[in-house]
Fold:
Amino acid sequence: MKKLLTSIAEALKPAFAANGYDESYAKVTLSNRPDLCEYQCNGAMAAAKAYKKKPIDIASQVADHLSGHPMFTRITAVMPGFINIRLSEEYLAGYMNSMEKEPKFGLEETGKGERVIVDYGGANVAKPLHVGHLRSAIIGESVKRLGRFLGYDMIGDVHLGDWGLQMGLIIEELRDRQPDLVYFDESYEGAYPEEPPFTIGELEDIYPAASAKSKEDETFKARAHEATLKLQSGYKPFKAIWQHIMNVSLADLKKNYGSLGVTFDLWKGESDAQSYIPDLIEDLQKKGLAYESQGALVVDIAQENDSKELPPCIIRKSDGAALYATSDLGTILDREKKLAPNRYIYITDKRQELHFIQVFRVAKKAGYVKEDTPMIHVMFGTMNGKDGKPFKTRDGGVMRLENLIGEINDAVYERIMENRTVSAEEARKTAKIIGLAALKYGDLSNQASKDYVFDMDRFISFEGNTGPYILYTIVRIKSILSKYQDMGKELSQDSGILPAVSEAEKNLMLLLARYNEVMENSFGEIAPHKICQFIYELSDGFNKFYNSTMILKEEDERRQSSYIRLITLTKGVLETCIDVLGFQAPERM
Structure:
């Protein structure tokens, strides 16, 4: 189904051509002055330079040519050369009826045949998820869902931090705590236990203790380095411990990501890239791209048009250790070999900007990724507290993600119970649904690259630009539809959605008509906040229509049936959008 802007532009093209102007000037945008018009075309302004005419003269010719066109109730030329457009109520109603009948409300699956890797987890094993993991998970999940809805073959990869010094630290701390374990008996030759020697709680205590010890005890730090090297060299006892760490951590990570409504298609980590690294380094040297600099192996990535100086990408440190860049390049080789994606999207905080510039440029310079394959780094800002600093617990620590979710759910529960109309059990279930919406919408409604303040009171409010307000609107529509059904009425089959008879009704239709444009643009620009803005405006538009229209008391059956169809379409669009954003609406609030 064509986007409304496209249909309007196609109506304007013949008018430009008939007056001797190129059709390309018939570009239409949403009006930035809704008090004057609904859409506008500024093509006459650009055409004036090319044809050496006054903009208003060109605009007048085009507007006159379109006088009486059934798509418009009014199309006028105004100084200095704008073409102001108001759609006819009949045409708009027809567009609504088409949306109602079309799969996905007329949204075209523009991504058919294209595979996209979305790298958006980045959690470290043996450590709990905390608020620092929130944004990549929430943004990444919405991007994956939106792309999939548009027909793309979206593959979400958690890309775990499961390799490196942290493993050596855990192994050596475990040795100090439980020296009698068979993993530390060099004479042991039997099978290693299937049960892990620690719980997730114990594991989460082991790592920070080991990390703190390594900063004070050089001997312990050296032992951890040696253990890491032995693990990476395939030493069986340490590989067995590593597998225990992975099994225990993954179970906990899946549970906590699940409570956030986030899932991954691949649960791979840095360890999966290690087998590629020796050949990768050798290949970069053979191609003359990697060279030694101060003992390290580096690849130049600077380009002539760079606005600032960019340092080389370090592939191997002077002590022979590989780095994150090496691991990420190995991961790219693995993805190219097994998945052959058409596009890459990485979602991390903006502090990693240089890292990904380096990795992407090396990947293309070496020919591992085709030059025309988009490699996109979506950089997000920080979630801050009301003091403007990165969000912390009351005692100044980093808050665990499950604790943050719990606090939001409790706050929503208390708000529900203030006006208690449901049982405590139902209130708890509803609070979880609303709490997740509050958290996700509170994050996604901000442009990803910007920092934002986590304000729980605002996030859980049922008024304003919040997740609960969107859910409340959906629940309100559900209530109206339920009452309509209870009245024993059925939708009229001899008419669909009728032309609007009020400004509020027409405005609701105009908002709905923007749906497919918003969805496509949001994915094209990787900007979930645009969907949030759209559903906020749509919710606002519905509530204004609801407050000005006696839907259930309307005596004209055909008109009432039209209203019910219109709000059903509104509910469907809102539910589709929140599903893409990663949350759902309850049955009642």
User: Anything to note?
Assistant: The radius of gyration is 29 Å. The CA atoms of residues 393 and 399 lie 5 Å apart.
